[in-house]
Design goal:
By secondary structure, this protein is of the alpha/beta class. It has two domains: 2-158, Leucine Aminopeptidase, subunit E, domain 1, CATH 3.40.220.10; 175-491, Aminopeptidase (3-Layer(aba) Sandwich), CATH 3.40.630. The protein has 14 helices and 20 strands. α5 packs antiparallel against α9 and α9 (287-302) runs parallel beside α14. The model has no long low-confidence stretch (mean pLDDT 96).
């Protein structure tokens, strides 16, 4: 979809649909909306007085052939309460408008800025919303709705320079998020660890990033016993994907951010096998890894001032004849011994070696992202990402990035008291907690063991990485959550 900036006044824009938004308040017909009302001979005021146009969040009011406008349709999207409106709401409104209109055969639309937000950030949010909403998970359908797509979107009512800068940045972020979503949606028979590594390497070449793929021989030489223990039950060999962005002028001793993503391309649970219901979704257990790869794609174009390393351990978790069993003891790359009490707690095992390797590569700060636990869904449902951090200043900066990016994240505890839950009896640590409850926390505590003194953040995205149904602003399937937050963190990083 082409997105460009228009200089014409709203009534003169010839398009299939002109879109703007209306707040939920008594005086809904104000500013830009009042200008449209005047152009349409009071149509909008009449709709407001009749109760048809209320401004309630994501309410859609569509007018066909509005008089006084060159556009064939006028769509008014409910914006909710003005005192609660955010850029995240603007992103969703833009996305919901596109999805609403493209099912009605609209090929071209124009999004009209309101007087409240005409800055670069608003243009970026609208661009992101449009491109994220246009993504569909119909790659393998033989019959696609080819006639139901939008070819062009125009941003109108902005300062041209601010809008063009916002459109460019929004395009980079949304296309990178959609790149990650496409990977996550892939079925596991078409996205094995080796295929994921190949696609990551192809992206890196195109983006001008350094990339190294460690095969099973190299992984064995590096003594990544935790990763190998998960991989041994599958006929598909594991891979460790390493992508590096280095700024043109790197200062000696500068901070290095490492992004470590879990990539279990299919998770049966291993010998501790999962229930069959819903197991088909376990192709998305590589969402953390795909997200980190997508982050690197965006950073290659946005060019932060710091070095960023992406480390993605990739494997399947299968119950084959060589699979590890409950009670087995494994030795991680760090040298720590791990008692595997449950083979379905495998993500923390592969991340343990990924974190250790990232530190060996020079990371001074670590962030991992993983669909790690069902327990985080119990705690936060599918609304917030769980955030576990060992360094408060670092964690606060990530949470600030999440707010700017419009992604909901919530801090969770990693108190030393929880360390007792993973204290091993037959080994240094065990891979699940010994007590009841706190499953998401014990998973984080396990990873903290490998981060050690390095400032570290764990993002549990198990409840937010996948949408079980279509949203007004986004298609069912992978969400690409956390990508925008992590890009913002790298772009605004302060050691």
């Amino acid at each position: 979809m082409e997105i460009k900036v228009a200089a014409q006044a709203a009534p003169a824009i010839a398009t299939d649909a002109l879109v703007t938004f209306v707040f939920e308040k008594d005086d809904r017909i104000e500013g830009v909306v009042r200008e449209l009302d005047t152009a349409t001979d009071g149509r909008l005021k009449a709709l407001a007085e009749s109760g048809e146009l209320t401004g309630k969040s994501l309410e859609m009011t569509l007018l066909h052939n509005p008089p006084g406008l060159a556009a064939q349709r006028l769509l008014l999207v409910g914006a909710g309460k003005p005192d609660k409106s955010t850029l995240a709401d603007l992103r969703r409104m833009a996305g919901a408008a596109l999805r609403f209109l493209k099912t009605r055969g609209v090929k071209r639309l124009a999004f009209l800025a309101r007087e409240q937000r005409r800055d670069e950030a608003a243009a970026q949010a609208v661009t992101e919303g449009l491109l994220l909403a246009d993504f569909e998970a119909d790659k393998y359908k033989s019959e696609k709705n080819n006639d139901k797509h939008v070819d062009q979107a125009v941003l109108a009512g902005w300062d041209a320079a601010a809008a063009e800068a916002g459109v460019e940045r929004g395009r980079i972020l949304a296309e990178s998020q959609n790149f990650a979503r496409d990977l996550i949606n892939e079925p596991s028979n078409r996205l094995t660890p080796r295929v994921l590594a190949d696609r990551a390497a192809a992206m890196a070449r195109e983006a001008g990033l350094a990339c190294e793929i460690l095969d099973e021989t190299r992984i064995t030489e590096l003594k990544m016993g935790a990763l190998l223990s998960v991989a041994q039950g599958s006929s598909e060999p594991p891979r460790m994907i390493v992508i590096t962005y280095a700024p043109a002028e790197a200062k000696a001793g500068a901070a290095v951010l490492a992004l470590v993503g879990k990539a279990v391309t299919f998770d049966t649970g291993g010998i501790s096998i999962k229930p069959s219901e819903g197991m088909e979704k376990m192709k998305y257990d590589m969402a953390g890894g795909a997200t980190m790869i997508g982050v690197m794609r965006a950073l290659a174009q946005l060019k932060p001032a710091m070095k960023v390393i992406c480390v993605v351990p990739a494997t399947e978790n299968m119950p084959g004849g060589k699979a590890q069993k409950p009670g087995d003891i494994q030795i991680a790359m760090s040298g720590k011994s791990i008692e595997v009490l449950n083979t379905d707690a495998e993500g923390r095992l592969i991340l343990a070696d990924g974190i250790t390797y990232a530190k060996r590569l020079g990371a001074t700060h670590l962030v991992d992202a993983a669909t790690l636990t069902g327990a985080i869904v119990v705690a936060l449902a599918n609304i917030n990402v769980g955030v576990f951090g060992s360094d408060q200043r670092f964690t606060d900066r990530l949470l600030a990035s999440a707010r700017r990016a419009g992604e909901k994240m919530w801090p969770m505890p990693v108190d030393d008291d929880y360390r007792e839950f993973i204290k091993g009896h037959m080994a240094d640590i065990q891979n699940i907690g010994s007590g009841k409850g706190g499953g998401a926390i014990t998973g984080a505590m396990f990873l903290k063991e490998f981060a050690e003194e390095t400032p570290w953040i764990h993002l549990d995205i198990a409840g937010t990485a996948w949408l079980d149904e279509n949203k007004p602003w986004m298609a069912k399937g992978a969400s690409g959550v956390a990508l925008r937050t992590l890009v913002d963190l790298a772009m605004h990083f302060e050691a």
